[in-house]
Amino acid sequence: TKHYNVAVLAGDGIGPEVMAEAIKVLNVVADQFQFGLTLTPALVGGAAIDATGEPLPADTLALCKQSDAILFGSVGGPKWTGLAPDKQPERGSLLPLRKTFDLFCNLRPGHIYPAFADLSPLHPRVSSLGMDVLCVRELTGGIYFGEKGRSDNDAFDTQRYSVAEISRIARVAFAAAQKRSKKVTSIDKANVLQTSILWRETVEQIAKEFPDVTLEHMYIDNAAMQLIRSPQQFDVLLCDNLFGDILSDEIAAIAGSLGLLPSASLNGSGFGLYEPAGGSAPDIAGKGIANPIAQILSAALMLRYSFGEEDAAQAIEQAVQHCLEQHIVTRDINPKSTYGTAAVGAAIVATL
Amino acid sequence: TKHYNVAVLAGDGIGPEVMAEAIKVLNVVADQFQFGLTLTPALVGGAAIDATGEPLPADTLALCKQSDAILFGSVGGPKWTGLAPDKQPERGSLLPLRKTFDLFCNLRPGHIYPAFADLSPLHPRVSSLGMDVLCVRELTGGIYFGEKGRSDNDAFDTQRYSVAEISRIARVAFAAAQKRSKKVTSIDKANVLQTSILWRETVEQIAKEFPDVTLEHMYIDNAAMQLIRSPQQFDVLLCDNLFGDILSDEIAAIAGSLGLLPSASLNGSGFGLYEPAGGSAPDIAGKGIANPIAQILSAALMLRYSFGEEDAAQAIEQAVQHCLEQHIVTRDINPKSTYGTAAVGAAIVATL
Ligand SMILES: CC(C)[C@H](C(=O)O)[C@@H](O)C(=O)O
Ligand SMILES: CC(C)[C@H](C(=O)O)[C@@H](O)C(=O)O
Questions:
Q1: Contacts of B35 (CB under 8 A, 6+ apart)
Q2: Closest Cα to atom 2, ligand 2: which residue?
Q3: Do A162 and B154 touch (CB under 8 A)?
Q4: Is the C-alpha dihedral spanning B81, B87, A241, A202 positive or negative?
Q5: Which chain B residues have a beta carbon less than 8 Å from that of A159?
Q6: Cβ of A28 less than 6 Å from ligand 1
Q7: Is pTM, for the whole model, over 0.85?
């Protein structure tokens, strides 16, 4: 039988409590679909800083290297905001993990489900039309990792992209679109940036490999506007690292349901880091009211993309869907709900 | 009596028709408030490309240099999208104008007016809380104007900011906040960019000169989210060139009324370029249905910021407000309206 080793990095705030539910769900589907799972916890983020002084301790990194995937919770909180940027929980853990494992591809689905359209902060005349977008974000290049520096009087950052970097993320976007509504909207600022001109040209080239997919280009400023005016026009959004950072959070806001949104960060050989789109929510941590669904759906993405366990992934997604339909949700989804983190987790387990 | 020379660059699409109404309004207030105005038209954008091959002909630039302000319409359209980036109407006219006249400060107000909350694509539970933000965008630095280049295989852009550049735009934001709700939200990506760390430190320094103004910092990704979730939390947004480009358009989308939003781009000595936030809208050009209000309000900003004619500026703003209240609006504001561009312009003139 197959066996998978998972590094479980629960992190801070609500991370540990939502991770506990995801672990229960994973153990159930492993039984049902007959694969072995070793889930090994390790410190990350603020919890790791408190214990070791580092947001990504060497032991944690070593565990990740021996694992088949990383299931990540969330990191950060008011306690650590005073630290230098590269020592901070989020940046100090996520950026080195992305770079070490060459996780160049970030997938962030965003939905407005008709039954939950009211969660969206958009007007019903817009949200009733629905939204079903997949944001494909380049994650290991661009201005995040280019040469940077500063003196007393000024500072600089460099955005650099190569044809190879653009091509590989573009292929992911087109391949994803082929399984969806066959449309890619590539985001750039080609009226200003040389990297965007190269981005646009390269994406045009890759598009030829996918003749059944429609390609359009959109400036980032216009995209920020169009997502609010008519999000239903989009299928797959293809973005560089910075524009993807901005638009994926804008999409999450439009969906209105951060607690339901998973994300996957992948490299070219099946390894990935899976985490909820939301943050560590320190204000509600420890209260047992955090929504575990984004973490559970992140685990489902891990089964799909890193382990190829499509049936198990779908079983989780269907169980989540079932609980949503039964209104078994935490109070971020329905303020009148009395279900807590554990109750929602248990309901998903029971459905499975 | 005072006399002002204005370079009138109407441009493409709806530019000429909305500009015609702004000119009528300007001539009326010049009479009323007893100042002289010379309004000299010149070619810009696609119209200039067609006539001269250049989006910003030397004659036009020379006129601008002899003028006290530039009243700009809008440029661009499908006819010119195939041109090389720096030959395109928008970029090829706006970027050199900004650089030539050191227009480092872009002001973009964004409103949800209670009476027009339904224009906003946000849910009434959000839009009913209103929005009254001023986006202060640095306009002559950052990744727009840094060193850039490309080879066959890669391309790069450089974002560079100096303490002096950040300080002068920060002072504008704080001074504006003093006259408003006394809060500045400074936007950056200080967890990733060196320029953002310098931005944040410099803004902290400038804040000390304005002890009555509250300063908060927000990451660009979070800001893109928060603007949708609760736009009423913001007063003045202080942004670099790229982040301001994105957020000011996001704000315009949230306001839902592009046709009502003016903008001002200023240098340190009272010279400015004034233009509507919306584009050239080629789809409705020539039909007499475009909303002239953003252009008229841009003219009011010119009177205020470049000429110090505060009374005349307010008179225009009040006349616009009056027409809005009387529902004398084009159909972008009220689809059932039968008022066209000229009728709305005439009503504003009549109110004056
Ligand atoms: C924490 C930060 C460096 C990170 C990013 O900007 O990529 C975060 O915002 C994200 O999107 O995962
Ligand atoms: C046309 C383009 C270069 C310009 C910009 O990005 O600044 C436009 O989007 C704007 O905001 O005025």
A1: B1, B2, B3, B4, B307, B309, B312
A2: B91
A3: yes
A4: positive
A5: 143, 156-159
A6: no
A7: yes
Whole-number Å distance between alpha carbons of B343 and B323? 11
User: B300 exposed, middle or buried (CB, 10 Å; 0-12, 13-18, 19+)?
Assistant: buried
A156 within 8 A of A150, measured Cβ to Cβ: yes
Strands B105-112 and B36-41: unpaired
* The dihedral sign for the CA sequence B310, B313, B317, B319: positive
Interface probe for B, chosen from A127, A151, A225, A254 (most Cβ of B below 10 Å), is A225
Q: Check residue B122 and report its DSSP letter.
A: B
Amino acid letter at A111? Answer: H
Amino acid at A156: F
Rounded to the nearest 5°, which phi and psi values hold at B173? -65, -45
Closest CA to A232 of A159, A181, A299, A273: A181
B161 is catalytic: no
Active site residue A245: yes
**pLDDT 10s digit of each residue in chain A, 352 long?**
899 999 999 999 999 999 999 999 999 999 999 999 999 999 999 999 999 999 999 999 999 999 999 999 999 999 998 898 889 999 999 999 999 999 999 999 999 988 789 999 999 999 999 999 999 999 999 999 999 999 999 999 999 999 999 999 999 999 999 999 999 999 999 999 999 999 999 999 999 999 999 999 999 999 999 999 999 999 999 999 999 999 999 999 999 988 999 999 999 999 999 999 999 999 999 999 999 999 999 999 999 999 999 999 999 999 999 999 999 999 999 999 999 999 999 999 999 9
- Cα A245 to averaged position of ligand 1 atoms, centre (Å): 7
Cβ contacts (< 8 Å) between B228 and chain A: which residues?
Answer: 121-122, 228, 250, 253-254
Q: For residues A246 and B105, what is the distance between their CA atoms, to the nearest angstrom?
A: 23
Please judge whether B250 and A225 are an interchain contact, meaning their C-beta atoms are less than 8 angstroms apart.
Answer: yes
Hey, CA dihedral for B1, B5, B10, B16, is it positive or negative? positive
Euclidean distance between CA atoms A349 and A24, whole angstroms: 7
Residue among B251, B257, B258 at smallest CA distance from B237: B251
